[in-house]
């Protein structure tokens, strides 16, 4: 019985070992035979090449050859309108305001009277000085004749000449004092404020009225240092007011000293304002025009970044490989961008530019011509392409 028990245990261990090996081949089967039978099956699979695999993996992108146009480079900055001239008119002599012929808001011409100060005896001083001058002239004439006749020495004539010059200077001083009583406008403009009342007393240097000149009106803005190369004095410009009105002008001044805090440069635009409809201090968009440059109208959606963080567009070259063109913003319209730096005839990727990388080979698909025509029309407002 013990022998049978040992035999059963040995059979059980052998069976367990056989199950664990996973080898369930039938008796008489050979591994070499299985390999020979499976070899033809593997050879029936189609052979593949690297070129075929690359062809199946090409990324499709939509491309378009967008015609370039001549477009005037534009710089837009926020600004404000200012008066061409502004000054506080002050009293040149002390006294009482006797006349005040202007009111706040009146339009005056250069030399027009703003106010008058009561003479208070200054006119009498002028008459006295005038009489003294006439007497000095008469005495000089009489002594000159006596000197010519030899009755008086020439030294007395020179003394009388000095007396005549003194009388002339005193007369001129009294006349100038009288003229200072009349306060006039130094230039044509609008009386923006009147600081005195008729009958009020003023001293020399007291402000009487504030005068501003609004024709032309000046638009002032600050441009970045990178935009200085775009604009020049005398160039075309526009002022777009908050009312929606746009007036045309010219660039009259460009600062050459940057603001320390912002590193920007002050630009002044001069625009005609004959009816004084545009006031000073109004918010306006200052639009500065440069020289025409070659630009390409593209939708905003195709602009992307390369690995270096540069802003540009992707295109496809003659070998269907992706190339990157850094761009220069020429103008920013409502629906599209006008960009420089894109070569003429470039096949720009308009769909799928963010799914490919530089140098990658792709499968370009031409975009519809209607899409290209719409881009140009939106960017140029109907301008003809070149």
UniProtKB/TrEMBL annotation:
Keyword Coiled coil: yes
This protein's UniProt keywords: Coiled coil
Annotated CusB-like beta-barrel domain residues: 222-291
UniProt KW Coiled coil keyword: yes
A GO molecular-function descriptor: efflux transmembrane transporter activity
Domain Multidrug resistance protein MdtA-like barrel-sandwich hybrid: 87-212
Gene Ontology cellular-component terms listed: efflux pump complex
Coiled coil: 157-184
Region (Disordered): 30-52
Cross-referenced Pfam families: Beta-barrel_RND_2 (PF25954), BSH_RND (PF25917)
InterPro entries according to UniProt: Beta-barrel_RND_2, MdtA-like_BSH, RND_pump_MFP
Family recorded in the similarity comment: Belongs to the membrane fusion protein (MFP) (TC 8.A.1) family.
Protein name: Efflux RND transporter periplasmic adaptor subunit
